[in-house]
Every structure is written in structure tokens, then in C-alpha cells.
Design brief:
2 domains, six-stranded mixed beta sheet, 10 strands, alpha/beta, Spore Coat Polysaccharide Biosynthesis Protein SpsA, Chain A, 20% strand, single chain
Length: 240
């Protein structure tokens, strides 16, 4: 609980990943992605309940072994690769309120595919939502200006190239570019009202916690290798 608000942590981990089968069970630094997430949650004293939303019994067992409860299974109609996170979170919230017989005021989504997150980053996002009255707070990373939307190009069916945004034609120096950010997956924090009433992840009033640390969102085997290297580098830094 934080500021008298009950907090539900949801770890979405379906079993049908196409890029890397059962990627949530694959190890990074000797632990599965699910177990790494459980270790982070164990360091968050303000969590009232932490559950996994999964359709896979092996993932559920790994979650429970890692300290994350698995009291329900995600329904089949929410287990495809085109299902949005909002629907998954809303289902988890409603299931847990039914099973626990209590209301949760804040929902925190911790995707297992972000193995480099730190507990203090998650806490910072929750504290910002509560202290500043936001509907939602996401953790983000500043996008390299070389990848700025106004510098992006598109090709049509005839191979003709143009700016993705017509405003790109007016950019001659990077000083003209307003900083932009991308989600890094470390934490998504939402109020119950944002999730169930507004029915969005990015609420009417949303804020961000900017993270400067290296963050990797795992989708491919190459991402696993990059995460291994970063964890090894962090470990070496602690030992030196």
C-alpha cells in the first residue's frame, strides 16, 4: 500500500510468443525472465498483491516459484498476439478484485521482457503517480535525435521516398528538434479509473519517469544476448 492506496502488480506472460517460443521462461544471467521479475517485486515493500496473467501452466509454476501468485488463467480470447495490454490488465484487475474481495486502486504492469529494470525505477513511477495525481505514469527513455520522427522517411509502392512527417522538410539542424521519448517497459503505472473507466493505458493526465540507464526490451535472441552482456557489465562494475 502507498498513500492508503492498494497496489496490484500484474506480470503479463503468455505462452504463445512467436519470435522466441516461451521466451518468458528463457534465462538471462542464470534466471528466467519471470524469475528476474519476481526478484524485483520482492524488493517493493508497497506491493499488496503480485500476480501473473498467463495462459500457460509452466509459466504459472515458474511465477509461483518466484514469489508471484498465479490464482487464475488468462482466457483464450485474451491470449493472442494482437491483444492489447489494457484488456489483459483489466481482466487481471477484475479477476483479483473478485477473488480477493477487495478493491485495488493502482495497477502496476511489469513485463518480464525488461530484465534490466531496477526496483527503484518502479518505485519512482508509483510515487510520481500518487504524489502528482496522474492517471498514468510510464517509464521512458530519451530517443536518439538521429531517430527523431521528423527525420524518418517512407517509401511508397513505386519506391518514391518522402518524409514520414512533412514537417521534416523544415529541419536543417538538430537544435530544431524537440526531444522525444520511447517507452522502455520498466514500468507502467495506472489508476483503477484510468484502466476501467477511461479504458486506456495513457490516461487523460499522464506523466513519465525518464530512465538514463541502458534498457532492453526482449523480443529476439539477439536481445537476450545483449541483456546478458549488459548484466555482465553491471556485475563487473559492482566488483571493481
Amino acid at each position: 500500500m502507498i498513500d492508503h492506496r492498494r497496489v496490484l502488480v500484474v506480470v503479463p506472460a503468455r505462452g504463445g510468443s512467436k519470435g522466441v517460443p516461451l521466451k518468458n521462461l528463457r534465462p538471462v544471467g542464470g534466471q528466467s525472465l519471470v524469475a528476474i521479475t519476481g526478484a524485483v517485486i520482492a524488493q517493493l515493500a508497497w506491493v499488496d498483491r503480485a500476480v501473473v496473467s498467463t495462459d500457460h501452466d509452466q509459466i504459472a509454476a515458474e511465477a509461483e516459484a518466484s514469489g508471484i501468485a498465479a490464482p487464475f488463467r488468462r482466457p483464450a480470447d485474451l491470449s493472442g498476439d494482437r491483444i492489447g495490454d489494457r484488456e489483459v490488465l483489466a481482466n487481471a484487475l477484475e479477476e483479483m478484485e473478485r477473488l480477493d474481495g477487495r478493491r485495488y486502486d493502482v495497477v502496476v504492469m511489469l513485463q518480464p521482457t525488461c530484465p534490466l529494470r531496477r526496483p527503484e525505477q518502479v518505485t519512482a513511477a508509483v510515487e510520481k503517480l500518487v504524489a502528482e495525481g496522474f492517471d498514468a505514469v510510464w517509464t521512458v527513455t530519451a530517443t536518439d535525435l538521429k531517430m527523431h520522427p521528423l527525420k524518418q522517411l517512407t517509401l511508397d509502392d513505386r519506391g518514391q521516398m518522402t518524409y514520414y512527417d512533412p514537417g521534416g522538410a523544415r529541419i536543417i539542424a538538430r537544435q530544431q528538434l524537440q526531444p522525444v521519448y520511447h517507452r522502455n517497459g520498466a514500468a507502467y503505472v495506472l489508476t483503477r479509473e484510468c484502466l476501467l473507466d477511461q479504458q486506456v493505458l495513457l490516461g487523460a493526465r499522464s506523466g513519465a519517469v525518464i530512465i538514463d540507464d541502458e534498457m532492453i526490451s526482449i523480443d529476439t535472441l539477439e536481445d537476450f544476448a545483449a541483456a546478458e552482456r549488459e548484466l555482465a557489465s553491471r556485475a563487473a562494475g559492482r566488483e571493481s
